C-alpha cells in the first residue's frame, strides 16, 4: 500500500469533519460536534479498513501520529480522559478517533456513539478551535 495512491476521503467523513493538518500518513480532521473535543485521523491508504491492513511501518507511523494528535488535543482542551479507537462500523474506511472526555459530559461515562445529536460549532467557535488545534498539531 502506498500513501495517497488511489485514496479518497469517505463522503461521510468529509461531511462530518473539518480539515486540521496533513501529516505523513494521516489527514487530521476535527469532528463537527461542539459537545466534545474530537479529532479523526484518516490514513491516506487506498482500501484500508483495519489497522492490520497497513504495513508494519505504516502501523508504527499511525501510532506515532495518534499519539501526536492525543497530545495536541490534550493541550487544547485539557480533557479528563482521552478515548482512542478505530471502530469503522458505519464508515469502513480506516480512521482513528481521538476524543476528549470530561466527567459529566453528555455521554459520561459511556461511549459517545449513538448518544444525542451532534451540535455544530458556531462559525466563531469552529474557527477558534481549528486555529488552536492547528497550532498544537504543528508545535508537537
Automatic annotation (TrEMBL):
Single Gene Ontology MF annotation: methyltransferase activity
Ranges of residues in domain HIT: 39-108
Name the source's superkingdom: Bacteria
Report the top EC class in one word.
transferase
Keyword vocabulary terms for this entry? Methyltransferase, Transferase
What EC number(s) are associated with this protein in UniProt? 2.1.1.-
User: What is the name of this protein?
Assistant: HIT family protein
The organism of origin for this protein: Lysobacter korlensis
Amino acid at each position: 500500500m502506498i500513501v495517497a495512491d488511489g485514496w479518497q476521503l469517505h463522503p461521510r467523513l468529509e461531511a462530518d469533519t473539518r480539515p486540521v493538518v496533513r501529516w505523513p500518513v494521516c489527514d487530521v480532521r476535527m469532528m463537527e460536534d461542539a459537545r466534545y473535543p474530537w479529532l479523526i485521523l484518516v490514513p491516506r491508504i487506498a482500501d484500508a479498513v483495519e489497522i492490520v491492513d497497513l504495513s508494519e511501518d505504516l502501523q508504527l507511523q499511525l501510532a506515532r501520529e495518534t499519539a501526536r494528535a492525543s497530545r495536541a488535543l490534550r493541550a487544547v482542551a485539557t480533557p479528563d480522559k482521552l478515548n482512542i479507537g478505530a471502530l469503522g462500523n458505519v464508515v469502513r474506511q480506516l480512521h482513528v478517533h481521538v476524543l476528549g472526555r470530561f466527567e459529566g459530559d453528555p455521554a459520561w461515562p459511556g461511549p459517545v456513539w449513538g448518544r444525542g445529536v451532534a451540535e455544530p460549532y458556531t462559525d466563531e467557535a469552529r474557527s477558534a478551535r481549528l486555529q488552536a488545534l492547528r497550532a498544537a498539531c504543528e508545535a508537537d
